[in-house]
Task: structure prediction
Amino acid sequence: MNFIITDIVSVRKTDEKKYKNGFVEYSPNLISNEIIYRPNGYSTVNFDGKVLKTTPNSVHILPFKNGGKYTAEYDEPDYFIDIFFLTDRPFFTEPVIINNIQSSRLNSLFNKAFSSYIKRDAGYKFECISLLYKIFAELEKKNYIPESNFLKIKPAVKYIEEKFLTENISCEHLAELCGISYSYFQRIFSQKYGISPKRYIIQLKVNYASDLLKSGEYSVSQTAEMSGFDDLYFFSRQFKEYVGMSPQKYKNNPPK
Result:
């Protein structure tokens, strides 16, 4: 997993039995990524038209998203632990469900994260971030998130991270750097990040732009140029698509 966890927004333990008829409709505007652990029970999740079934001992990962549909129907209600978190780069664009995980350690890690967040002792967010890294490490160790082919695209990822602000990067050139075909590169990249290389680059630029706007030191046009966008209209459209508001509105009312 090639990302940095930048913040823990919240950690919650929810009893599904409180929902009437076992059904709940969530806000479609997710302000963060989510990773959810269900030790027992079954459910059906509808995330923007994609229907996924969960079983006991499951983890499902939901990406930051604006708009769409997000509902869950609990066939056998129980409780779940939900960690809301932010990352420095795109995480997934589609939901991921991992069922039938045989790991008592995973249960312990999620419960420790919830306990730490609720207690809010000094340094609790650092502790929660540390525990979340351990959760992802556990998933990788169990081969639930395969890494076998991802080393092939490492040169392209490194190039993107170094050049996304200064160069007009083509996917063809990225494939050449990796020594693989264009179609194979696209497929592996999308499997790894849940998003196309082009969208990944745009998201990095938008993330960088949001930090500039939050600082209050730059205008929208200056921010667009510094973030590698040649067209102000295109920048504004992409920023609103990813962040959920226009660059000017974000600049005037940055999130806390």
